[in-house]
Every structure is written in C-alpha cells, then in structure tokens.
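Escalated from tier 1: magnesium ion holo job.
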Amino acid sequence: MILTTAYLFNIAINLALGAALLAAWWRDRSQAFLRMVGLAFLLHAGLPVGFVVMHAGSPVAQLLGLALLVTIAMLSFGLLALGVTHLAHRAPSHGRLGAAFAGLLLVGALLVPLGAEAALGSVAALHLGIGLLAGLWLWPLGRAERVSALLLVGLSLNQFQVLVLGDAAAERQAMIGALIRLLLGLALLHAAVRRSAQESQRARDRLVRLTEHSHQGVAVVRGEHLLYANPALLRIYGLNSLDEVNTLWRDATMPAAERASARERHRQLVAGELAQVSWSGQRFRFDGTPIRLRFTAWRIDWDGQAAEQVVVSDETAQHDATTALLHQATHDELTGAPNRSALQARLRELCTARAGFALLLLDVDRFALFNEAHGPSVGDEVLRALAAALVEALRGRAEVMRLGEDEFALLAPAAAPDRAAQQVAQAVRELLAQPLAIPGHEFFLDASIGVSLHPVHGRDPEALLRAANAAMHEAKHTPGTSLQFAEERFERGSGATLLAEQALRGGLKNEEFSLVYQPKVDGRSGVLLGFEALARWDRPGIGRVSPLEFIPAAERTGLIGALGRMILAQACSQTATWRAEFGHCVPVAVNVSPLELLDPGFPDDVARTLRRHGVPPALLTLEITESAAVAHMAQARDRIAALRALGIEVALDDFGIGFSSLNMLRSLPLHAVKIDRSLIEPMPATDATAVVKAICDIAAALDLEVVAEGVETRAQHDAALAAGCRVMQGYLHARPLAPEEAGRWLSRSVPGTVRVLRP
Ligand code: C2E
Ligand code: MG
Ligand code: MG
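Tier 2 regenerated the structure:
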C-alpha cells in the first residue's frame, strides 16, 4: 500500500493545524490546551505511516505497523484528551497524568497481540468514550467548545468505518478524518482567540475597577497622548472628563522646562531602558492653580502596544504645610522678615563658601521708652514699617532679617565687605534721616549699628555675631545713628588678647615694625607737599600684617603707647636723614591713636622726640581720627592746642564716615581735614561731589586745608579738585613707598617751586 492523496491530505492537515495550534499557544501561554492538542495533531500525522507499514505484506511488518499505529493512536489520543481537560478547566494533577499515560501505553501493549481489528476497534471505542465525556464537559462552555465536542465525537465515530466496512473504506476514513480535524482545529483556535480576548478584557476590567476607585491618579500615556485617566487623575488636574483634553503635556499643566526631560523619560520607559522611575515636581491644574505631584511610572502594554502607566499622588497639601512650617520657622511673624535661625543658616552657608561679607547688627535706640510712650501696638507698627523700609532701601545691597524686639541684622555679601558695610550704613543713615510714617504718626528713629566683617573679624557665625553685637553695644555710646566696626576690645575676656600681646611685644623687641611713606601732592601742580607715614609689621613666618589689624590689637593690649613712640621716633629719624641728605624735607604726617592722644604726657613726649632727632616741629603733622575727637572732645581740644602751641600741625583723619559736627570742626584747633576715601570713591557722581563740595566750603570758611584721601582715578582727582580739595593723596599719585623710593621723590622736588617729576 502506498500513501494515497487522502493520506497525504490527512498528514498535511494534521501538520498544518498542529503547527498553527502550537504557534497560537506560543503567543498566549495561558491557553495550555493549545499545546496539548497541537502536539496531538502533529503526532497524528504519523498514523498513515503506521497504516502503510502495516500493509507492507510481511507478518513482521504487519505487527510493527500495528504497534506503531496503536502507540501513535494512544499517545495522540492521550494528548487530545489532556487538551480537552485543560479546555474544560479539569486539568489532572501531575501524578494522575503520569498514571493515565502509563495506563494508555499498557492498554496499547495488551491490544497489539489481539490483532489489527480488535486493537483498532478497542482504540476507536476508547476514543468514542472519551469523545462523549469531553462532549459532556465542553457543552456548557460556549459555542466553539460545543462544536469541538461534536467534532470530537464525530472523529471517534469516523474510526469505525474501516472496522465496519473493511479496508476499502480506509481512504475515505482518512479523508473524512482530515476534514473533521481541520474543523476541530479551527474551532479550537476560535475558542482560544475568544478566551484570550475575554482574558484581556477581564484583566482590563480588573485594572479599571482597581483604578476607578483609587485615590491616586492613574494615567496611561503614549507619546504626548493621554490614553486613559482615572477619576482621581481628572480630579487632581481639575477636569470633568478625559474628553476635555487628550494630553497633559501643555503649557498650562506642565512647565515648559520639564518637557524635554519628560520626553526622554517616556522614551526610556517605553523602550524598556528604564524599568520604573519616580519623580516629583510642580504642575498646574487646568484653572492655573499650582499643585505639587509625585509620579511613579513604568511600561505597560496597552492595546498591544507599549505605553507608560503613571501613578500620581497629589502632595500639594503636604508640600504647602511643609513650606508654611519652614517659613514659620525661619521668618519673623511681625514683619515677615527672615528671623534669627535664617540668619544663622545664611551665615553658615557664607562662612562655608569662604565668601566675603559684612554683618551689621542694627538696634533701634531707646525703643523701650518709645513703646512705653506710644503703646506696644504703635511699637509693632513702627517695627513693621521699619522692616519694610529697610528692605526697600537695601534692595540688592543687603539682606534684612529681624532678630527680635528692635534688633535687625543686615547681611551684605561683597568682595570688599568693609566698603559694603559703609555703603549699607550710609543707606540706613539716609533712611533714618527721613521720618518713618505709620497711619496717624510720623517718627524719627535713631539706631546703633555694629559691624563685623568676614573673615577679618571671625570665620564662624558665632564669632561674627559676638563681634558685631559687641560693636553695636559700643555704638550705643555715640548719640544719633552711629556705626561701629568690630574690635576685639569690645569683647571681654577674649583669649586672643593674650596671644596678641605676646606677639606685639616680640615684634617691638625684634624691630619688626617699619614705615612706608605715601606722598600728598598739590592737586593743581603735582608738587610734593608731604608724606603720610604708614606703619607696617613684617611678622616672620606670617608675612606683612595690616595696620588695620595690629593697631586695634595694640590699643587693646595697652601696647599702643610703646608702638606709637617707636613709630614717631622712626618717622622723625627718617625726616632727619632726608634733611641731611637733600638739605630739605616735606612735612611727614604720623597717625596717632585716640588712646595716645588721651595721654596728658603725649605733647611733651612728641616735643622730646623732635628735639632728640633735631627735627623742626613744622616738619611733623599728626593725624587723629574723627571718632577719637568726638568721644573725648575736651581732652582732644586741650591736647591739640598743646601740640599746635609747639608748632605741630594736626589734621582730622577719615572725615565723613563717623559722627562729625560742624561744632567739632570749629572748636578743635585743627589745620586740615582729610576726607575719607569712602566719600571720594563714588566721585564724580553728582551727589558724592556735592557732599565733598559742601565739606570743602565749610573747611574754607573755617580756614582748614582739605586733603582728598584714596584718589584712585583721574576722574576722582578732577572732581575733588573742582569741589575744592587742594591736596591729593591716593594710588593715582603714589602708593605708600619704601623710604628709598620716597627719598627719590624728595630729591626731585624743591618745596613750592619745582613740579614733581614722576619717578
Ligand atoms: P589712614 O590714616 O586713613 O591711611 C590711609 C590708608 O589708605 C592707608 O592704608 C593707605 O595705604 C590707604 N590708601 C592710600 N591711598 C589709597 C588709595 O588710593 N586706594 C586705597 N584703596 N587705599 C589707599 P593702611 O596703610 O593700610 O592704613 C590703614 C589705617 O591704619 C590708616 O588709615 C590709619 O588709620 C592706621 N594706621 C596706619 N599706620 C598707623 C600708625 O603708624 N599709627 C596709628 N595709630 N595708626 C596707623
Ligand atoms: Mg591717616
Ligand atoms: Mg584716612
């Protein structure tokens, strides 16, 4: 017997459907029955081969063919039956499965010796029995299952054809079997597809049921398209339905700056490069209200394509509460300004960054009395108005904080903090020169300001606060709005004092102090008019120390007397040397500390020193600072008068930054005022020029010489000259010079006649 068309058709149908069923299973592994039935079909394609072998002629071939036939039939039948149990949701346990297959093979082995007819008859009967059972199980499950059950019964009945009608019916049986199998395969595939669809519908229903009632927003997004949004998400964004919008990616809801990163995140999620990602940020409801959201997103399949599922929590309330708490903790309730802990944090930040800054502590003078007189609510109004006015006046220059009561901190980050402090103080002075208006009242306030500079007066917040606070208390001694820079002597009990004293004593003993000489020139002719002697301390291993540091230290430790005497002696000795060398000399100005001036023996000391070096008193000028004169007016006047009586000229230094009054200028027997460089620096600005001009006019009326200090530019020079300053001193003309260099200036000048040639 050979394989006829009917057999080949049967084989082809079994192979094709077997492959189709397995492929369907490969796509949806949850449909296990597809695999069993697919394998059964593939196995069944071997059956015609069994028939061919069985009819080969020899008895051995007949037996072999029958054995093959029965084995294939049993296994294929077993797999088919197993598939049906899965389809009917009655899958057996592993143990039972093994036993059933072993039983089938055993039955097969027992059947083979009975001969072809009996064996095939038994197989067909078994088939029919299982077909009927399957029909019973599958009937209630659906249309495709019912059709499959009928086809299964039909398939088993078909097997009786050869048994009943003989071998002549074999081909027809194969043909009909193939057709029934074709239909059965199609019915099963249909059942599988329907089940898949039902399953995904069920999954989606489950998801929807879960998300519809969730308090968290859930969205499914592909590209910029919103595919799904649950009610919570719509609520969060203030929408009624998804139909109103189909994207959250628009200006109204998502800040434009976030869009590029959101796009990239979406791409990575959908491409599977990111498994899951969380982020938070500000978004906007559709009515424009800002909201704070936290997102978590991952990739999902949505309608067969990759999409991003996002779970959104609305953290607006939490965020607002935290912000409010933080604001409350760092801001003052009365004025809304940052409070002491905000100041501490800011100081820590600036100190860590090693930034230069000035810390000004401002305390309103006599505020307690003010409160008593007008009542605390007016007091509160005043503080509120003062805070607002300070913020307004110092905008861009200093941060304003309220430390409590009537105390404010002004923080001015700047590369040159001393200058910044002066400017801030000046702005405060100008502000307080105007009345402070509150409803129904106008008040004039005074304040005392203490300043500490980072890093000059300390490198940590505590040290700076301590220094500024001590300076502020010192400033309280001066009436009116006054400014005081930190000095260590204001802070009692400082261990640093002892160290400074030791170092200064050593420096004096080892002659580490020297003088440099800065020329003062005639503003019109450039003629050298004098020198100012400026002290320098060259500390071994440390380098050059500024007089701004060591003069206050010497004052604090009481060594200023010795240091001052040494400096005066050095200046006189240098003057004598120059006189001997060049036959003439210009006056040399020596700075005098307020403490020296207070010493009643000071004028005699000076006279003795001049005599000792053979220097005429006309060649010495003394510079005293304004603050010294103010604090101790009477003594200062006596001392200056005594010095003038000796023929020594006295100039008032740093005029314009401290507390000065016309009365003081008039009552002190001075010969010159030196306008502080903080007033010269903003020139030629009109207002600055006006101030300098006013000082020059007063000085002219009082017959005082005017020296402009710190002239750095030609424009400052010209403006100062036009305003009435005759004498100029500053880097424009010369820096402080070593004695040799200063000597060269002297050698080129004949006092009053020859124009100085620049060295
Ligand atoms: P001062 O008496 O007002 O001296 C002027 C200061 O300004 C000097 O700083 C000088 O170098 C600096 N200066 C001069 N021209 C310019 C300029 O064009 N631009 C700038 N930015 N600065 C300029 P120095 O030498 O550091 O002295 C600082 C202060 O130390 C002096 O201010 C003075 O009060 C004090 N001092 C200096 N030497 C002595 C001294 O021998 N005895 C006493 N008691 N105090 C001294
Ligand atoms: Mg000076
Ligand atoms: Mg000065």
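Confidence is low (pLDDT under 50) at residues 492-498, 752-759.
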